[in-house]
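ERR on first pass: missing label on line 2. Operator R.T. fixed the label and resubmitted. Corrected input:
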Amino acid sequence: MRPVILFLFLASLVGAQSPSAERFENEVRPLLAGNCYSCHSEKAGKKKGGLLLDSFEGIRKGGRSGPLYSAGKPDESLLWQVLTHEHEMRMPPKQKLGAGAIASVRLWIAEGAELPAQLAATGEAMHWAFQPRRPVVAEDGALATIDDLLDAAQERRNVEASPRADPGTLLRRVTWRLTGLPPTRDELAKFLADPDQTAFTSVVDRLLASPRYAEQMARHWLDLARYADSNGADENHCMSQAWRYRDWVVQAFAKDLSYDQFLMQQLAGDLLPEKDSAADTIDQHIATGFLVLGPKMLAEQDKEKLKYDLVDEQMDVLFRTALGFSTSCARCHDHKFDPVTQEDYYALAGVFASTKSLSHTNFVSQWMERDVGPRARVLELAAWRGAAAEAAKKEKHAMEAADLEARRLLASRFADYLLAAEKTRAAVLTLEAEHASNGNLIADRSMWGDARTVVARTGSSGLQFAEFRFERAGRFELELRAAAEESRPVRVLLDGREIAAAALGAVTGSWLPLGQRWSSLGEVELAAGEHVLRMERDGSFPHVDKLRLVPKIDERAAWPALTPEGLESVALRAAVDALEVAAEVKEAPLSLWVGWRAQPEAVLAEAHAASKNPLAVALAAPAPRDAMEFAGRLQTLGLAAMQRAEPAQFGFDAKRDAALGLVAGPEGLFWLQAGELESLWPETRRATVLAERLEVKAVQGRRPEALPVGMVVEALPRKPLPVLARGNHLTPDGEAQPLGAPAALSGLVPSGPFAAAEDGRLALARWMIDARHPLTARVMVNRVWLWLFGEGLVRTPSDFGSKGDRPELPELLDTLAERFVRCGWSVRQLVREIVLTEAWQRSALPTENAFATDPENATFAHMRPFRLAAEEVRDGLLLTSGVLDVKPFGRSLALESGVIVTNDQSGNLANYDSLRRSLWLPVVRNAMYEMFSIFDYVDANGPLDRRGQSVQPQQMLFFLNSAMVREAAAKLAEASLAAAATDSAREDFIALGILHRRPLDSERLTLAGLRARVRAEGRDEKAAWAAVAQVLFASNEWLHVD
Amino acid sequence: MWTDAVHHPLASRRDVLAAGALGFGSLALRGVLAAEAGRPLPIPARAKRVIFLFMHGGPSQVDTFDWKPRLQADDGKPFPGERPRVVFAKTEALMASPFKFAQHGQSGAWVSSLFPEVAKVVDHLCFIKSLHGTNPAHGGALLALHTGSDTFVRPSMGAWISYGLGTENKDLPGFVSICPTLGHGGVANWSNAFLPAEHQGIPLGHAAVKAKDVRFAFASGGDTPLQEAEMEALRVLNGSHRARNFHDPALAARMASMETAFRLQDAGAKVLDLSGESASTLASYGVDTAKTENFGRQCLMARRFAEAGVRFIQCTHSYKWDQHESLKGLHTSNAAEVDLPIAGLISDLAARDLLKDTLVLWAGEFGRTPTRQGGMGDAAGRDHNPHGFTVFMAGGGVKAGTSFGATDDWGWFATENKVHVHDLHATMLHLLGLEHEVLTFRHAGRDFRLTDVAGHVVKEILA
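pass 2 clean. output:
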């Protein structure tokens, strides 16, 4: 402590306001605003007596009655006279001001009637945070240091600061704070051997150079950027490209990208000149993911409202995060507390409305995802995509034409197929999978009703099986129908003998009934008597629907009147299926046929009467004589429907649709999959398709080098917005507002309306990162201070407005901000400067004096203890138990964009089973990882400027019961058994790893007692030591770092 | 973001103790100590707790409780009025309800054939047939119903109630949600948002977990004898650490929270264990029948949580009610899963004299259009309709055996005595002794409420 020197130092400071100007700011201006503006301000549009009081020019000039004051001479000043009602002109006319207020004006004039320097002309921008910085500068021009300013503040308040923390505590503190991880035993030993300031400096430099530092800083920023891997809101879709933004943030901190550029790229990176390397250009674009990451009500059907909500969200996050104030109130009305008018809001909103963040607003909207890279390459890729799409379209059309012709050919023999299928079906043995005679599979009838009931068992381990008993003799083809989205081969046994080791292994496309496919297991020979067919698998089962035994062809001699010549077997098989479905499903296209075969007249009459089946009318009268005629009529209807089934013909025609369903619909007579139909294409059509396929292949061969797909924005033509009355887009009010920055702030950083030639985002970004901007640097240095000290100089880090906290040490905030800007906005240098101060290295234990004189620790006379954040708890457990995987970067949630991560029935698709740092785990909105949420990382829906430090019982349950803690403790126990031979050496090993100190003697006794109890429970040595480790992990000392 | 006082250690020891040492639920509005000292509430509370039976998907009002003879008569005719500006999807002509309606009880309430058991307890119920919101999509409507906002993340009503009333049981959370949905807002529907963390809804499982398998997170899995030994060692270690570090009040709070955690394991397990319930009770909730077992169990747990002093208990019948098609069959099967459990819960609460101070709310996120969607006949369904739908309440100070408000002749728009979702919230808070305009929380520079800047207490339904 250097009290005398400091006092002199402070006396020599320049740059602070004069007392008179301070008084104007603190006392006079508020009373002018409160009592006089209604008649004398531009804001009110009234200039009575020619006097304007909301501009300095007006105050200096006075009104028509002459100047307001004569500096230093209150009695001669008009202002004093009218306020005291001594003059014939009395102000305010109705009610004289209070004596205190009038006294303030007198003092202000007496002290020289000075006005604050360099202030905005608008008279509104007077709140401290909107004023220019007033750094403390010594006579030699150097900026004051943090320690000087804090020492001086402690001096002023008579606070006695705490001494430097002990080396172990200091190493723990600096390692946790800068990297989010604890120090290792080796790092500890090295520092304890030489703990002076020089050694500490080299520890800090080592940590700042570590990739872990960038990850830790990125975690703070990602909280502010409401980073997540899923949309949240109403439709929790995976944002599969969000991770690129996260990785960009980490890279930015790793290379210490200057903070002004860091902001610029996030707001307008897509508009900046391209860099020399494609990778750098791509990075600039990726940074704009910041604007796209927010939660969106994708299913909002009022799409205009959705767009305005999105703009509001973008503005809110940007302004709260980068500038420390919120614009959102002004969406509906002028901001009540801060100088943001509704006009200001829509002038800014125009900037974001002129930005494309949604790729479409169809039924469920979709955020922007596009190719990212140098413009020329993006265009080249787009052109190629166009060509590829065109070629694919042609191929598709050729295939459709071929399919259609094949279907027509089939349909022209509809009646033959129908009658043949009926006979064939009678000879086939079909077994429904759910009618197994034994097994542990579960029947699921929920999908499409009983006819498509499947058996399956998912998500289970252990042996799953189903057995079927039947009687048949002869040679058969054995077929199974199942759906599978992933390969789940099953073993098939017939009468105990394996006939297939891995049947049904093919992926059919989906688990749904539509994905069901038949597959043949080959020929089986059955002796007379009962047989048992068994399917089994160790683990989850495919979704099995049916089993079928089809008599082999040479057995067909035994069949009655076989199929007519020329029928394709693939189509016939489909027809047999269709009849099977129709026998069970009332609404199936052929149900009318099946019903009529069973009960001719009754069925048609009933169907006709109810008119439920539009075909019934056509078929009922006159009543068909026989099956042949009935089948023929169906064929006629189907063919006619096909003639009219051109894709362009939309519109509802129930009869046409029903008739078409007979021949081509799902569960119609020819429900053939694409590949199956292909075998029936006429040759000329096949040639056309092949030619188109060659073209597709040729185009594929010309594919330009790939570019990443990013979640980024794109500029749109400028779209100024009118003010919306009450924020409602249905009630626009007046002219469109020219794009621009809030008027009240633009006095300090001139912007005016943004130039038409420049994109609004670019102009806004330039305005924001102007070195003169009063908020940008202040807000960021305050954040870094908060990250390192656990409390900000302004305690409402995202609210520097008039309702926010007013800093106790504004000179420190301004000096830091000034240095930040002068040092090229380097975050790493700022961090280094702060942690190397005496103040940051102080013990967390307050002096007795500080308890009394500065109970809130506003002068940072001692360190604040902090509770580990959720990620730190997890990463610390993994690192300390030796299993942490520090591999950085890459995708976290291996799902496509648009896949719903959490839905109503199936739970959560995110996977947290990983040993990587928590930063790389998926962040799922509205279903945060349980362990994160228990430790206060609950919500990634909006900017999070500090983590909660709650004390909740679930946290303790996590330490007592979770597998994560138990496994970490077990690993550490194993390591201690291997590393040390005596009890006390093992205690040291574990305690040094967790607490970074050796146990006290009393603690050794407690831990020995614990081990004894564990052994008394009959547990082994490892369990005893694991209990020791678990208890230390669960201790307050681990979770609360000084 | 977090305004609970743990950030300002020296200044806020009392608050820390309230949050931590007492376990769940410190009291914002009145303070634990004041409430325990029996300080009178500003307005008389009729209810002490809420059980919310949430029918996710949107049950149709015109097929359940809102009987519309005109709709039956106009089957197949076009809807004569103006349709909403924003609709979820296109719908066709008017469609009569396929269910039979009849009047029940002394009150003569109309109930369709879907709810034969609920029909037996209608004299306990107070129907609101004019509820309305704005958002016709599930996500927005769920969030609006649960949090009052379909635009921003706001605290759930359960969190507000826990914040306003604190807890009656220090060993259990103030707000639990049994088998909640993870879709359509997920956690945001039971989150504390900016309210202190202890008011967060504690989920028990989720929609994909069977009610019989739910548990409190991490409340089991430990090894009991070992755990006792570990707790003992922790007490000693933390005690001596605390003595060396008097400056950090969070340490004392955490020591106390360890004890709470230990009690929660026990208290939570006891509530979830239904083995002490009689066979007849289990049967009255349908726990003994496959169809009703899952929701019956939820309802029975809700009663047990209510008895244990939890303030807000939500049971979710997840995402079953969204019948864009096949409404007849699927509404029938949905209702069959919940009908007996709901009636069982209400009868049981009444029999145990719990209904007088327990407010039961039955609601979906919206109703359905009187017009047809999807196929014809059995395949027909209805679209979403936030403009007029029916909910019912029971107990907790509402007028039993009554019905309030009405929709138009076809049941699309609320027309008479309209009740907005904000009004429903204001009324619920009022019944709990909380004025919705007074129950505020300062966040980001302004005071927030569950009802934003709207909401009126529906005085007419107060008993």
